[in-house]
Each structure stands twice: as structure tokens, then as C-alpha cells.
């Protein structure tokens, strides 16, 4: 990607060249009228020259303003790309958690999310081996100790998600997939990431 300062220099250079072309045209017209030699022609030439210079300045101003707006848009787009990249890296880091950490995280989230303790747990396709009946038996035991039913069961349904789970009850679903968790925190995290990246 072209750096913003090089882009700005290029756009401003083009603006100056266009303005210079307009001035040259106006001066050429004025020179032709001067050559005619009459007072009327000289007055008209002065008007044409003045008008040409005013048009050139106005065009230059507009070109520079548009160039600055385009530059701001490109800078914002570059910043957004960087923030998106940070969130992508967070997602990748979550998916590469070692089993022990991942299972501890899943247990903690399930214990917090379970309302009655008899919901269905939907997991990502890649998690179907590690989030199994044995794992849920441990979670259910802790739910019973907390006064809930402790009857969580794995759902046969698989939803497209990178990791985490969706807890499905009779009348509700709690989405604790990585995608949903990051999306729910995105505004706050985006502001924080922007402050860190672009201080």
C-alpha cells in the first residue's frame, strides 16, 4: 500500500499541474486578445486572464480538498484493516489454546451460562472429540453442587463456529461461540485496539 504521505504528494502534484495548465490556457487566450491591439481586446484579455486565474485557483482548491478527503478515507481504511487483523489474531490465538486451558475456559463459561442445567450444548465440529460426555459429566457435577439440575447434554446439531459453544434451552439460546463473544465486545475492544495501535 502506498504510504499516505507519498499519496498526498502525488495527488497535490497532479492538482498543481492541472492548475498550471489552466493558467497557461488563460494566459494564451489573453495573449491572443492583446495581440489584437484594441483597447476592447485588452480589457477582454484582462477579464479572461482574471477569470482563468480564479477558475484555476478554485479548481486547485477543489482538487486539493478532494485529495485530502481521499487520503483520510485511505488512512481510515488502513487503520480498520489493522484493527481487523488484530481481531483475527485474537480468534486464531483462541483456537490454538492447549486442551487443558480450553477445557477449563469451556467449563467456566458453561457453569456461568447454564440457566436450569438441563440445556443442550452445541459445539464446533472440531470440538466434538474433546467436548464429550466425560467432560460434561464433570460440569454437571459442579452444576448440581450449585443447586442446578446438572443434566447438560451434547446436541447432535453442529453450527458453523470456530470454537466455544451455543447453549440451547427450551425457550432460549445462549451464544458463547468465539465469534459471538468477540462481536459482543468489538466496539469496546476496537476502541482500545485503536488507542494502542494509533496512539
Summarize the structure.
This protein is α+β, with helices and mostly antiparallel strands and 199 residues long. It folds into two domains: 4-85; 99-192, ATP synthase, E subunit, C-terminal (hypothetical protein PF0899 fold).
Describe the structure.
This protein has helices spanning 4-35, 39-95, 99-113, 133-145, 178-197; strands at residues 120-123, 153-154, 164-168, 173-177. By secondary structure, the chain is of the alpha+beta class. The chain folds into 2 domains: 4-85; 99-192, hypothetical protein PF0899 fold (2-Layer Sandwich). It has a 4-stranded mixed beta sheet with strand order 2-1-3-4. Strand 3 and strand 4 form a beta hairpin. Helix 2 (39-95) packs across helix 5 and helix 3 crosses helix 4. The protein starts with a helix and ends with a helix. The mean pLDDT is 83.
Topology:
Elements: H1 4-35, H2 39-95, H3 99-113, E1 120-123, H4 133-145, E2 153-154, E3 164-168, E4 173-177, H5 178-197
Parallel strand pairs: 1-2
Antiparallel strand pairs: 1-3, 3-4
Question: What would you call the shape?
Answer: rod-shaped
Identify low-pLDDT runs: none
Count of runs of 4 or more consecutive helical residues: 5
Overall mean pLDDT stands at 83
Q: Residue share in helices?
A: 55-70%
- The CATH topology of the largest domain corresponds to hypothetical protein PF0899 fold
The CATH homologous superfamily of the largest domain corresponds to ATP synthase, E subunit, C-terminal
CATH class of the largest domain: Alpha Beta
Strands side by side in the biggest sheet: 2-1-3-4
Strand segment tally? 4
Amino acid at each position: 500500500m502506498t504510504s499516505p504521505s507519498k499519496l498526498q504528494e502525488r495527488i497535490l502534484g497532479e492538482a498543481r499541474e492541472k492548475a498550471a495548465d489552466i493558467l497557461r490556457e488563460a494566459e494564451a487566450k489573453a495573449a491572443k486578445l492583446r495581440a489584437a491591439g484594441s483597447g476592447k481586446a485588452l480589457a477582454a484579455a484582462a477579464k479572461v486572464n482574471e477569470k482563468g486565474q480564479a477558475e484555476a485557483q478554485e479548481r486547485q482548491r477543489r482538487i486539493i480538498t478532494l485529495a485530502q478527503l481521499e487520503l483520510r478515507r485511505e488512512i481510515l481504511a488502513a487503520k480498520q484493516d489493522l484493527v481487523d487483523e488484530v481481531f483475527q489474531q485474537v480468534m486464531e490465538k483462541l483456537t490454538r489454546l492447549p486442551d487443558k486451558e480450553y477445557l477449563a475456559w469451556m467449563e467456566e463459561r458453561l457453569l456461568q451460562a447454564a440457566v436450569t442445567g438441563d440445556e443442550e450444548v452445541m459445539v464446533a465440529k472440531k470440538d466434538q472429540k474433546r467436548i464429550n460426555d466425560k467432560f460434561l459429566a464433570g460440569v454437571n457435577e459442579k452444576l448440581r453442587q450449585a443447586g442446578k439440575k446438572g443434566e447438560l447434554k451434547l446436541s447432535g446439531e453442529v453450527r458453523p463456529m470456530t470454537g466455544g459453544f451455543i447453549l440451547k434451552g427450551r425457550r432460549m439460546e445462549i451464544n458463547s461461540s468465539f465469534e459471538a463473544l468477540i462481536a459482543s465486545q468489538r466496539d469496546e475492544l476496537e476502541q482500545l485496539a485503536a488507542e494502542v495501535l494509533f496512539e
